[in-house]
Amino acid sequence: MEYAGTYNETQTGKRSAGWRQEIRATLALAWPLALTNLSQMALVLTDTIYLGHFSTDALAASTLGANLYWAALALPFGITFGAAAMLAQEKGRKTHHLREMRRTVRQAIWVVMLTALPILALLWNTRWLLEGLGQEPALAALAQDYVRVLMWGLLPFFGFAVLRGFLAALERPGPALWISLAAIALNAALGAVFIFGGLGLPPMGIVGAGLASALSNLAMFGGLAVLIARDRRLSRYRLAGRFWRTDWRRMGEILKLGLPVAGQMLLEIAIFSAAGIAMGWMGATAVAAHAIALQMAAAAFMVPMGVGQAATARVGLAMGAGDRRGAARAGWCAIGIAAGFMALSALALIFFNERFAWAFLREDDPAAMETAAVAAGLVVIAGLFQLGDGVQVAATGALRGMKDTRVPMLLAALGYWAIAMPAGLALAFPAGLGPSGLWWGLAGGLAVVASLMTLRWHRLARRGGLTARRRLAPMRA
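-> structure tokens emitted (477 positions)
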């Protein structure tokens, strides 16, 4: 199924398509990317729902483990986003784009695999790290059991992310979407059997959740690699050709773009991970309530994240072709689409907060009533900061299409760590607002980041970006 035309099909010479054409092209590329993100989120969401019905302690421990897990993988994951921006501009330049894109995919996979190796060693010591952060020893031990199995799906996940960026640059996100949807069903089936027991297997609880997710990530990478190799149009890129060859200059370019993206992602992931750690100081109920609200906010966030990925591709294609007006139009369309969706998402979270909270809990659990009450309040706050969250990720995606990654990282550092976290801790503890105070601080920080990212995009879009007048020469392998 064809989701979007090529860049040349939506452009005439150097003049960009009209606003309506750009909106259609962005939506056509964004909705499969958003659904792919949602499907990956569904893997975690399925585990959360299963574990919430298994026990409150299992839910709390998986949340602590997942917070550390996502913070640790920010570096290689961010590099895949930097590679996606390179691939989009290489496709837009047209000259030797098959060779250039093949080499970028190859080197990106090498870079993310090498950077992931020390992360595996870090995650193996999850219990020690969590206890050092003041978490309860029993929850830290359970979290380590979860992460030590979950971590073996990391390398396949990064490989899948690189291939997904390659397909986004070609404006063919469909294969990644179908593979991700199949992975949801696989993870749900495996999770039900592994967590609760069945088919002759004993209940494995939290370990079963990690195993199901790891196997699903492996299936996603393997399935997408096979699909690309068997597709007539995609196979001509020969992505596996001479895979062992290194290109240090290209690796350096990937790192130059990807490291600031990784830094920004680490800042964003770490702020919510730190919030989860702070919730741990308030007890298992606060952690479980935080997990529920975070899952709802993160699920909604996957859609504007897909729009941001589409913005990276559309802006990058225009910049590679030297069409600065098209690049500006693509970015503003993405920001508007993301803002509109998140406004609707905010209304849903605010008006149906209690229903969302109870979806994760078992009614006969003695701790469920208290957890649901706290979670419902946090879901309302999550709804209120949805608009800012959507705008900032769309603007950030557009900036990546211009290969602007360093300044957005600094803006994220300011908003998250100079404003959000100090304000949240002050409201939670000295002001006595508890979990809701922490989330109000996060909401304020996200609003600041959204404003700063939009102003940055406005400035660069007006002056034509960073690379419109100095195209990068093709690099030799």
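The longest helix spans residues 284-320.
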